[in-house]
Amino acid sequence: MVDVCFGSSAKGALKLARHVGKGKDGPSAIAFIGEEPISRREKKEAIRRIRAEQEARQRYAVPLEGSTGDVVSVSFGLSMGEIASPLTMDGGPRERLIRRWITAAPWGESEAEELEESARAFWESCKADWNALAARARGGEPVRIWVDPSPDALCGLLAVAQLLVSLEVPLAPVTAVSLPGFFCREDGKLIAHTQWGDVPPEEFGRFLPRAEVLPPLLLSRLAGRWRSLQEENAPLRAVVGGRIVSVGETFYDGMIRRSFPGKRFRVGELIGQVLTRYPVGIGDWLVAQRIRVLLDRGELRWAEGEPQAFYGGTVEVPGGQ
Hints:
Blueprint: E1 2-5, H1 8-16, H2 40-59, E2 71-73, H3 93-103, H4 112-138, E3 143-147, H5 151-166, E4 174-178, E5 182-184, E6 190-192, E7 212-213, H6 216-232, E8 236-240, E9 243-247, H7 253-258, E10 264-266, H8 267-277, H9 284-297, E11 301-304, E12 314-316
Parallel strand pairs: 1-2, 1-3, 3-4
Antiparallel strand pairs: 4-7, 5-6, 8-9, 10-12, 11-12
Helix pairs in contact: 3-4, 5-6, 8-9
């Protein structure tokens, strides 16, 4: 069986989900990140809570079958940019968007050559996963799709449906596992996630009973919806009323304006406010691009810091609005 997800974090978690369960150690690296120092007592208490949570997840973990090679990710960021061109075309709009995305060094800490190499490797990985999915589905392997309400995942689901339908061969069962808004764990703790990339590896197995078969007729309809979006070829696609639709490039600008932390603030702080206040499944890179547009329009003004370290720079609202 091929497991399909829609992001690098989910891909890594699905691979690790093959190796979880009782008697197995969970993650052991714990980092404390922040500007303010914490006391020794606070650190010990935080470590205690984290380890207790790790142990709880391991106790209730259900490992997934298969190997890490059974996981592929459609990580093209399909909710953004041009989608009418062939998806895996070298030098095409999709590769150019991914290059801009991966080579953006928001804190100004990376070398350009390293970023370019990361972008090339990521693009090759995206193509390899896409081609592997096509080959294995054509070869008769079942496909299981892990879908959540984020724009990239819903676009990815439609694109995968179009790929499978285009193979024009009898398909093994295609199923989809939808991420619930929340669930109650065996220890009584209420857990909520917005994307599969946020789900710990230990928790994936518990969602297997939610898998639903996508019959050929439904796959055809999903594929048709993707073709419609390709014809519209809007700058962005967003979730509106639970449905993925084409929207203009300014769609998220109002969310950004409503999230201004004050009259003067760091770019990274504003991005954090947007993503926390509006958990609509978009990433920091898209928000940062729209902030740049607001700067170009004069709705914000660069106040302090190096533009190369964009997230660490300070901006202000002109006229103290």
